[in-house]
Amino acid sequence: IHSFCKKDDHNKENLFNSLNYDVAAKKRKKDLINNKAKTQYFHQEKWIYVHKGSTKERHGYCTLGEAFNRLDFSSAILDSRRFNYVVRLLELIAKSQLTSLSGIAQKNYMNILEKVVQKVLEDQQNIRLIRELLQTLYTSLCTLVQRVGKSVLVGNINMWVHRMESILHWQQQLNNIQITRPPFKGTTFTDLPLCLQLNIMQRLSDGRDLVSLGQVAPDLQVLSEDRLLWKKLCQYHFTDRQIRKRLILSDKGQLDWKKMYFKLIRCYPRKEQYGDTLQLCRHCHILSWKGTDHPCTANNPETCSTSLSPQEFINLFRF
């Protein structure tokens, strides 16, 4: 009897351990399915049909969250031509469209954002762009979490607090980046003739990049203050009417184009230009990335596609 009791206790202990294992396994499976999962939810098709008009069909199947799930943004951020487009889209969603995303779309949004941050940490490029995106998202979440009692966000409040902590961690990682100088491989930028240096600087579309470049060396500082350089930058981003409303004269009585540029960007949106954008087929109303095959019945589908800016993409789903 004594040996039997010991055997029974041993079986009970094994049963108890087995139950604990099952509970732990179920919890891990539940976490994987819910918001702790790192695997993006995606569809096999990389395009989505945009319904015309405000109909029940459109409301049911053509939402911003559905489009965000199906347009393969995870792969797009790996393409240098699409990276800035996706980042701008993430920023616009962070400003005003977070509550328009479904629970799965919000999870995908955070997963894609994490991949963007990791890419920037590895490449050490576009650091300022991602800092601004994270700050915009954190500010929006601070406002939305305070209104959580009104069900403006999908999910538990603790989950969103955890996501905000992740954003703070990413910001700290970006702040701690130490950009390593590449090994000397021959001719540098300052070795080029001044006319070529100025020509290259004219290709920069952000005035803050010009200011940063001017801090590298004294000679570049002189070039970065060139009036014609800042004049072309103002004319590229803003209309003549906008410029006339924000005229600033220097001490010498000349137009101070540099000061005018930074005043103009506070008053008007800058011109946006991207290497690759999302395309909307006017014939079949299908939204996809350029080069993505979709079931178009037009004789020449390439002529039916029109490029969409990030803001125009979001406007498709406002109804």
From TrEMBL:
Subcellular location field: Cytoplasm; Nucleus
Primary localization class, coarse: cytoplasm
Keywords: Cytoplasm, Nucleus, Ubl conjugation pathway
Cellular component terms (Gene Ontology): cytoplasm; nucleus; SCF ubiquitin ligase complex
GO biological process, one term: protein ubiquitination
Residue ranges that the Swiss-Prot or TrEMBL entry lists as coiled coil: none
Database matches in PANTHER family: F-BOX ONLY PROTEIN 32 (PTHR13123:SF6), LD30288P (PTHR13123)
Stated role: Substrate recognition component of a SCF (SKP1-CUL1-F-box protein) E3 ubiquitin-protein ligase complex which mediates the ubiquitination and subsequent proteasomal degradation of target proteins. Probably recognizes and binds to phosphorylated target proteins during skeletal muscle atrophy. Recognizes TERF1.
Protein name (database record): F-box only protein 32
